[in-house]
Write a structure and sequence with these properties.
- The complex is a heterodimer of chains A (207) and B (273).
- With 207 residues, chain A is mainly alpha-helical.
- Chain A is extended and about 65 Å long.
- Chain A has a domain of 79 residues.
- Chain A is built from six helices and no strands.
- The two termini of chain A are 16 Å apart.
- With 273 residues, chain B is an alpha/beta fold.
- Chain B folds into two domains: 55 residues; 199 residues, Rossmann fold (3-Layer(aba) Sandwich), CATH 3.40.50.
- A six-stranded parallel β-sheet of chain B has the order 3-2-1-4-5-6, sandwiched between helices.
- In chain B, helix 6 runs parallel beside helix 8 and helix 10 packs antiparallel against helix 11.
- The chains are: A mainly alpha (207), B alpha/beta (273).
- Chains A and B meet through helix 2, helix 4 and helix 6 of A and helix 2, helix 4, helix 5, helix 6 and helix 8 of B.
């Protein structure tokens, strides 16, 4: 067994020791994780961003146009100064403009137009009781949930009933999300326990 | 103190121990429980099956080490299926840690198949700013990634000589523990009409179900359960399959604790009233 497995196993135990109570072993493992993650991030950011995007174009390919984005990027550092933060505004404006330009049409397409179509399209494929119930559920669920978020009219009468039904749909969504979250967290526990039992203690064989 | 009072004030550390036992025992004794393959996982499998051998699939590793136990089994199962079919893979990462994770996944699975980097697969590594990278790759992958993860220029890589942009790619799989599949759906699918399949953590699953309805994604592989389903489909049981019995028993324990806790709460409330 290699040293790495021992280190990983002991650090796993140190992290899980927090479940009993906070202790120096947990704190050490936590700080180590933060330090290693930041160190790794800096190296990767340098090797995979600074080198191919700045150093190579500038000093290897002599692509002088790259100076424009470099200067704009450099302006962003003025955000740290309260006196000169205005210098960063052109770069920030460009970034926001690009972000909005890219996001607005694609989000309109993916989140609004396609999802509106998806609410109605089940009615065009009705061929059994199941598909009918599905189509009605999706339509009623959408309308009622939207009614819950409609605040310009008091939630009473028909609007109140629809908003109430909307709350039940939301509750079902939260329940499903919570169930999936529990599943995800248990999966992580299984992964670590599996590692301890197989790689470290050799009690299991998992590939 | 009666049973319900005890149940309501149980020390959380006892619950941790019970949960630990519920996970360890099925793992040690290798319990097997049936696992039904869901429609969304079957759809991803069928789509990869339908691609002709030699097709190129883009696989993006957009997760960090915290979710490795969930993501590794699904990434390995997907890669095993793709390589069994004789298809090629281009790997990317839009999270810094994804670069090391993706590279390791490729090495692990390609060694099983005796594949050659650069011919059967290529790993391009990490790029920041996912939206502009996805858009840029739609025009020309080499402009976003002039070199691969090893530092080899893309022009010198045999596999990349037949791939210029999304037109040469059959499917995009986003192995992710965050909302990066949204970027693939919004940009690669909505703009370039490329089929996308998210392989995500269970936490993210409910976010992507609405996209199935309108076929904005061809299917998805959500969480360890779906990874176990995929292992079952390719007939290669692995970490996910081993973990499923532990998962089910832990869930039963949690359901039991929720029921006991709630009954206890209402019993005490009624008594106090």
């Amino acid at each position: 067994m290699d040293v790495g497995t021992w280190i990983a196993a002991l650090l796993t135990l140190a992290i899980y020791s927090f479940l009993y109570k906070d202790n120096p072993f947990y704190k050490f493992a936590e700080h180590l994780l933060v330090g290693v993650s930041v160190g790794f991030l800096i190296v990767i950011a340098y090797m995979d961003t600074v080198v191919p995007k700045i150093i190579d174009p500038l000093f290897v390919r002599h692509d002088w146009l790259i100076i424009i984005p470099i200067v704009l990027g450099f302006l962003m550092f003025f955000r740290f100064s309260s006196k000169f933060s205005w210098v960063s505004r052109p770069a920030l404006a460009l970034l926001i403009g690009f972000g909005a330009g890219v996001a607005i049409p694609s989000i309109m397409q993916s989140y609004i137009l396609s999802q509106m179509r998806a609410t109605i399209s089940p009615f065009t494929n009705i061929n059994s009781l199941g598909t009918t119930i599905n189509a009605v559920l999706i339509f009623v669920g959408l309308i009622c949930t939207l009614m819950y978020f409609y605040f310009s009219k008091k939630h009473e009468g028909t609007v109140g009933v629809a908003a109430k039904i909307g709350i039940y749909f939301l509750m079902i969504y939260f329940g499903a999300t919570f169930g999936f979250t529990v599943m995800a967290r248990i999966s992580l526990l299984i992964g670590r326990v599996g590692f301890l039992l197989s790689d470290w203690l050799g009690l299991l064989k998992i590939s | 103190m009666n049973f319900w009072q005890r149940a309501s004030s149980i020390d959380r550390r006892i619950i941790f121990i019970l949960l630990f036992i519920a996970v360890v025992i099925p793992l040690i004794f290798n319990f097997k429980l049936p696992n039904r393959v869901t429609k969304e996982v079957q759809a991803v499998y069928d789509y990869i099956e339908s691609l002709p051998p030699g097709s190129v699939i883009l696989m993006s590793f957009d997760h960090d080490t915290a979710t490795l136990p969930e993501m590794t089994p699904m990434a390995r199962a997907l890669l095993r299926h793709i390589f069994t079919k004789g298809e090629k893979v281009i790997g990317t990462a839009f999270l810094a840690e994804g670069a090391a994770i993706g590279n390791k996944a490729f090495k692990f699975v390609s060694d099983e198949f005796g594949l050659k980097e650069g011919e059967d697969y290529v790993f391009l590594g990490y790029r920041p700013e996912i939206s502009s990278a996805i858009l840029g790759m739609g025009e020309n992958i080499a402009r976003v990634y002039p070199k691969d993860y090893r530092g080899v220029p893309l022009a010198d890589i045999p596999l990349m000589q037949q791939v210029k942009n999304y037109r040469d790619i059959g499917l995009i799989i986003s192995v992710s523990d965050n909302d990066s599949p949204n970027a693939w759906i919004n940009l690669a699918n909505a703009r370039y009409h490329k089929p996308v399949a998210p392989a995500v953590t269970a936490v993210m699953a409910t976010t992507y179900y609405p996209f199935l309805q309108e076929k904005q994604i061809i299917g998805m592989v959500p969480g360890l359960k779906a990874a176990a389903e995929y292992e079952q489909l390719i007939n290669k049981p692995g970490t996910a399959t081993v973990g499923m019995a532990a998962q089910s028993i832990a869930h039963l324990l949690i359901v039991l604790l929720v029921i006991v806790g709630n009954i206890g709460y209402f019993m005490l409330k009624r008594r106090n009233a």
